[in-house]
Known about the structure:
The protein has about 425 residues and is α/β, with parallel strands linked by helices. Helices cover about 25% and strands about 25% of the residues. Strands 13-12-11-14-15-19-16 form a 7-stranded mixed β-sheet, with helices on both faces. Strands 3-2-4-1-5 form a 5-stranded parallel β-sheet. The longest helix has 14 residues, at about 365-380.
Amino acid sequence: MxxxxxxxxxxxxxxxxxxxxxxxxxxxxxLSLMARELIQSADIVFGGARHLTLAASLIQGTPRxxxxxxxxxxxxxxxxxxxxxxxxxxxxxxxHGVGSLLSxxxxxxxxxxxxxxxxxxxxxxxxxxxxxxxxxxxxxxRSLDYIRPHLHPGxxxxxxxxxxxxxxxxxxxxxxxxxxxxxVTVLESLAGPNERIRSxxxxxxxxxxxxxxxxxxxxxxxxxxxRILPRxxxxxxxxxxxxxxxxKREIRALTxxxxxxRRGELLWDVGAGSGSxxxxxxxxxxxxxxxxxxxxxxxxxxxxxxxxxxxxxxLNVIEGSAPVCLEGSAMPNAVFLGGGAAAPGLMDxxxxxxxxxxxLVVNAVALETEAILLKYQSRxxxxxxxxxxxxxxxxxxEDAQVTGWRSAMPIxxxxxxxx
Length: 419
């Protein structure tokens, strides 16, 4: 909707069948005249129990509280297309709110949305934190592990949480990760009559009776040995739990560069080992997804632990042997084979599965696998690169005073892009 329409709403604008109205803890008093009119004129008003209570004095139609699980509620709203329907949401409906779900099914020509200040905006105004320089994430209904990649010294974070126990649980996680000196501020019931703001260091967090409606602000202070995840590809091998089956950091950085992750894409990491390539793929952007395939049960468990430790617990780990276990999986935009390229049918399967423009990256150590890559490259094109890494180390035993180069086994890397 344009600014002109909001300033001078015409009847057609006011009578779009669906309105999405943001409401804060200040209730009716914080609503604009247009928002009040939309609620009053609605035949059906959807919202959480708290929202319906806040707007009760305006509701003249039928109130419909959300049910659990939430997904069927969207269908219920859509069934009423043509009736006057109002959906109430907390603050800004399009910031981790119901507006984002509804927008997949309705057009802007049939919808009028009026946001209220979001929890992030309210918290930033109380703390005087500029939002563009502040990390913002929602942990409502999500693992607390998602905070891990954001814990950098000096960072400021605003976090939506669910429940009164979440701030204390966050504080404990910060201590476990070596950032227990971080200041944790809990902002409760912002803009409402029961608003309260309290702070404590994570390592001395004793706040009690925290309202379930809270936002947590964190000022990150890192102690010695804190687990800080660098932003660049090629994270240190020792950050991962592994049994030696890991794509080493230098090779991993080159592999991620060849895989070239782009927003919203899906990776298949076949023969994932420790899961390091899939994990770094996910760390590149929050919109990315990955499937890690591993046949050994112990390594599958290890991949899942690593995914949680790196703040990407949504990594989809499949236990089994490729290509059989990948049947029915979504088509990938990129595939990485760190081993197993000689498995019958695997190369052809992943090439056929790739979306047009998708990238296949295969790393080979064994001469037999190199021979396979040479045949594929000769027939299908793509680029071949030989990668050799050498590290300095003592020569002649632990007590030696002489240092020399120790070469790792060279890697042949084939990169192919599907036409």
